[in-house]
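Final report, section 2: Outcomes. Of the targets proposed, TetR/AcrR family transcriptional regulator is the one most frequently requested by collaborating groups, and we therefore present its record in full.
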Amino acid sequence: MPRVSAEHLERRRQQILDAARICFIRKGFHQTSMQDVFTESGLSAGAVYRYFKSKDQIVVALAATASGDIRGRMSEAIHREPLPTPAELVADMTVWISAQSGPEGRLRLAPLAWSLALTDDNAAGPVQQTMTGIRAMWRDYAERMREHGWLPADADLDAVAAALFGLLPGFVLQHLVIGDLSNEQYVQGVATLLPYGPALSTGADGQGSKP
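The predicted structure is given below as tokens.
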């Protein structure tokens, strides 16, 4: 029997995820059955179950894929020169998030994965891993902020990262659930709350001062 390549397995896995995403968006998560996923993907039940045992696992995998894209985009942004201000970083990310949250966007399913993590131990692990990975990236950004004099030398970077972490999920929830928030309005709020940047450095007393 010929060996199946890793590339083939990944293509098949992505085929299932794409089909499930279409079903979830078309019918809603709870109204979608695994049979719907079989039909949309054109694969047998056995082929699908080889990769995913339930809809919950599929949703978590979809959210993890989208989160991987977020981490890649964040990594590029936080290592940019000159260092983007918090508002500039959030502006870049919210434009991308909005594009990925349209009617067929992958990020539309992120809040569902978060809710599953509260009640499903199988979902909790992957979601926690994804979130801690993104929080670690915010810590990298906080470290660069400190290097640029935007934070006190003795700043607790873990605490800063934990606070910054909430910026993007906060936008996702308001954008998807409430629907009345523009990118520009959100970025303006971040700029007002976190007025860091080249025009503002942190003095020895921990207070902002002109360089």
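Residues 72 and 127 are 17 Å apart (CA to CA).
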